[in-house]
């Protein structure tokens, strides 16, 4: 783990939103949300179809906890103490100061400003610690809610990669957004 990242295992976003680095003890709650939201999440994410048992989620949490601050940083997003979803750096490239941001929420927590506020807080924390200066959001071209987050937060649209991401049995175009701080 990079030394500066130890201070970033918990990020207070606001009075009702908190980000906490993923840990194995959250696996049962996370699993319940993933299973409940699996069909909806699978529209734009490939990984939900591979989460079938609590053991799958425990393994994911254990691997993510171990790699936190090395190649990625996965946070549990809580809204009023309830697990709302995940906000993450799916890839961290400290040598070049680049972080690829990803996020998903349970449907009942959408449209509350959780993702926008959490991503903004994540950017502030990592830029403020001088760890990351270029923040990237990659999303399926037809994922309008994800595109709206990037645009609302002032990310610049850099282009579209054709058939860049396999979701289920389909290859989707991927839009690339970036923000340099």
TrEMBL record:
Gene3D superfamilies: 3.40.630.30. One of its GO terms (molecular function) is protein-N-terminal-alanine acetyltransferase activity. PROSITE patterns: GNAT. InterPro entries: Acyl_CoA_acyltransferase (IPR016181), GNAT_dom (IPR000182), Ribosomal_N-acetyltransferase (IPR051908). Residues 17-177 form the N-acetyltransferase domain. One of its GO terms (cellular component) is cytoplasm. It comes from the Bacteria. PANTHER family: RIBOSOMAL-PROTEIN-SERINE ACETYLTRANSFERASE. This is N-acetyltransferase domain-containing protein. It comes from Variovorax paradoxus.
């Amino acid at each position: 783990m990079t030394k500066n990242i130890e201070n970033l295992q918990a990020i207070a976003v606001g009075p009702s939103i908190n980000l906490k680095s993923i840990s194995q003890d959250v696996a049962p709650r996370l699993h319940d949300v993933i299973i409940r939201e699996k069909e909806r999440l699978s529209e734009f994410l490939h990984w939900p179809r591979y989460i079938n048992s609590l053991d799958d989620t425990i393994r994911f949490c254990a691997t993510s906890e171990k790699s936190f601050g090395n190649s990625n940083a996965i946070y549990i997003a809580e809204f009023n103490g309830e697990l709302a979803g995940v906000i993450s750096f799916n890839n961290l490239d400290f040598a070049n100061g680049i972080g690829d941001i990803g996020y998903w929420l349970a449907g009942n927590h959408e449209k509350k400003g959780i993702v926008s506020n959490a991503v903004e807080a994540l950017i502030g924390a990592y830029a403020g610690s001088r760890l990351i200066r270029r923040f990237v959001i990659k999303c399926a071209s037809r994922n309008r809610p994800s595109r709206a987050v990037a645009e609302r937060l002032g990310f610049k649209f850099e282009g579209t990669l054709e058939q860049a991401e396999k979701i289920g049995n389909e290859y989707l175009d991927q839009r690339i957004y970036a923000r340099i701080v």
